[in-house]
Each structure stands twice: as structure tokens, then as C-alpha cells.
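Minutes, project check-in

Agenda point 3 was the complex the collaborators sent over. CS summarized: two entities, 460 residues total, and the question is how they sit relative to each other. Sequences were read into the notes so everyone works from the same version.
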Amino acid sequence: MLGFFISERLYPTKVYGEEGKRMSKLITCEEAVKMIKSGSRIMVGGFGLVGAPLSLIAALAQSEVKDLEIISNNLGEPGKGLGVLVRQKQVKKAIGSYFTSNPEVVQSYQNQEMEVELLPQGTMSEAIRAGGAGLGGFYTPVSVGTKIAENKEERTIAGKKYVFQEPLKANFALVKANKADQLGNLIYNKSARNFNPMMATAADVVIAEVDEVVEVGQISPEEIITPHLYIDFIVLKGGN
Amino acid sequence: MNIKQYIAARAAKELKDSDIVNLGIGIPTLVADFIPSDVQVFLHSENGILGVGPTPDPEHIDQDLVNAGKMPVTVLNGSSYFDSASSFAMIRGGHVSVSILGVLQIDAKGRIANWAVPGKSVLGVGGAMDLLEGSKKVIVTTMHTTNKGESKIVKELTYPITSERAVDLIITDLAVFTVKEDGLHLIELAPGISLEEAQQKTDAPFHIAGSFKKGKEVTA
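CS then shared the predicted structure for the full assembly.
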């Protein structure tokens, strides 16, 4: 009884829907993708296909949207994951660290069908973190004196050279987590975490694809990696 | 033991107990097989793992558990997972003791090229620059020459440089060099390799350390 009393106090009735349940963030992949317009800038989680929101990507591939600007470490594999969007020429520009694992990206780039901006992996992940954390960028020693730092501001701090990196933000972030609760608190699975937690902080609209949705309270506060305030919508893997 | 395993085994002898170690793709990956049993190191993988274990049997592959080469791995007791920004903060912040990397070219100052090939589209860098910049110690493992017999140790890089930071140790199938302020120092020759052969196959000038020794057979 006491537990019930406390939870009523902590979750006042006004945040509950008509039937006394909190409004769910759960939508279908189709509904999620309908929000995305051509020309959008989208962050997509994953290290290759590991930790990539494959159902959301598949729904995007079914849609008519094009001219997308994708921020992702890689662009999938030929015909897999984001590789499908490349093959269907839905991607106008890609920002990431390693695209050579998909020969179709190399081909599209050489055919001038797609622009590519390359960042060292640590610079890219930190730029996304900075974007979500309200920072105007940062100075990193990585890439000083290399091709990647050409045209970037260089500065010497305490005798060491650094280059300036602007933050990265996006219109949408499509992330993949293992489990969400009804509020949108997320936990990940093993190395499928990778870029997802940062991307969840750095976009106007954040959609999390998850394997499972559980009741609020079933994930321990100590375990939660992404607190729910970052998450706008949840879709179930394979869910339509 | 084949020649790549020989290089890996030689590199493994550089690891010290409780080192945090990041292994690149290729010969560096093989180093894990040769770590002495009395040395406990912790393998860091830049996609977010500390405490990488051996490759799983095919029936125990977990699709969510891969290393930075996207190959299936396991984890050991005491391991942890973290996001990419945290992982690269560890690297840039100097918390990784040793990185062992593959290489395309090394110059006379010990600076390396290992991310792009001239004349081809530059579409991948991954974590190469971060690891080279941030690791406390960098060891490169490589065949001494290319498939065409050209020296990989050159006076000046013709491939795009990865970082202005020089590596600390170079281990090839022919020799071992340390890198100092004044350039490369030969400290060891592989078994059966003469100084003349090493000189002939090395385009960059190098010093010969006073106490350089002929390598002993390295065994696992």
C-alpha cells in the first residue's frame, strides 16, 4: 500500500492518459518514418550492422524520402543496413569515419552521386557528444598535420597542437537499444551500444528501436544508460 | 610458426603485466595468441569493450559482441562495455598503455602512414589517428617489404601521414627498431637475417644500436 501511495505521489495523475496510464512513446516503424522528410539530416547508430536500428532503416528504405544526410560511423554493407539506402540513391551526403567496408559507397562517391565527410572515429563520437551537450565544439590533437585537418582551425595550447572540431547535431536520431521501459529509459546490449547513447542526445527527434519494452521500474536506475528525457519515440524491432 | 606469427610473438614479449592493450587488424590481432601466461593484460577494443577474450566457437557467437575489426569475440570476467565517445576519451586521454598497429609505410623519423592509399578515394580512417595520437606506447608490426619487395621503411612517406607522433617500436620479419629523437635505431635482427640484408631492404637510414643482438628463436 505504501509503495502504491508513493508512486501516486511521484507520478501525479496529470501525466497519465485517459485510462490512467502514461501516454506511450511506442509507435510503429511506419509512423516513425513518416515524420522524416527528404533532405533531413539523420544520425544512425551502429558500428557496421552491430547496434544499427535495422527495422527503422528498412522502413526508411521502403519510403520515398531522398537527399538524406546521414551521420553514421559506416554506411552498412552492400545491400544491408544503410547500404540499402546507398544502393537506392537516397543518400546525398554521409558523415562518418569508415566507409571503405562498403564498395558501393566508394562507387557512389566516385560517380559523384554522394558527398562524403570523413572524421576520425574519436573526433566523430565526441562531436556528437558535444552536439548533445550544448557545446560549441572542442580542440583535439587527433588529425593535426594530416589531410583530415586541412582547412580546420589549428591552435597551440600549452605547447601542443590541436584542431578545432565543430559539434554535430541532426534533425533525427535513429538509435538501437536492447530494452526500453515505457518512459523510454534505455539499456543496450554489449558492443551494440557504440554510438547510440551519444546520438540519442544530439537530435531534434530521437527514435529508439528496441528488442523489448518493459514496465517502468523493471530496469534498475543503476543500469539505465540513456535516461528517458532524450527519447521521443520507441519502436519495436520488426514492429509495424 | 609462420612469419606473421613470428612478428606477433615478438611483439607480445613487449607487453607487461596489467597493460591496457589495443590491437589493430592483421598481424596485431595475432599478438593475443602469444601473450606469456605470467603476464595479464587487458585488451581494449575501440568499439566499446575493455576485457576482450578469445574468439568464440561458431555455436557461441553473439551478434552484438564484436571487436573493432567487426569479428566475433568473447569477454572475460571483469570486462566492461562503454559507448564510443568514452572509448575514444580513454584512447585520447592517455589511458591505453600500448597500441599495436599495422602500417603501410614508416619514415626515417618513425612517423607512419596506415590509413589511406594515394590515388584512391580516401573514404575510411576509423580509429587509426586516435590510437596513434593517444596511446602511451605505439608498436607497429609489419612485413619489412611490400609484396613487390619495396621497403616499407622509407626516407619520406609517399602515403598520407596518420599523425605527426612517431611510433615507439617497429617490429618486422627482419628486424626490430626503436625510435628516438634522432631517428631509427636497429636493436635486433631476426634469426638468420644479416645486417647487410636488413640494410639493403631498408630505404630509410638508421642507427645501429651499440648493443644490437641477433634475435633468438621466439617461441609461443
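Noted in discussion: DSSP finds five helices and twelve strands in chain B.
Follow-up: revisit at the next meeting once the mutant set is ready.
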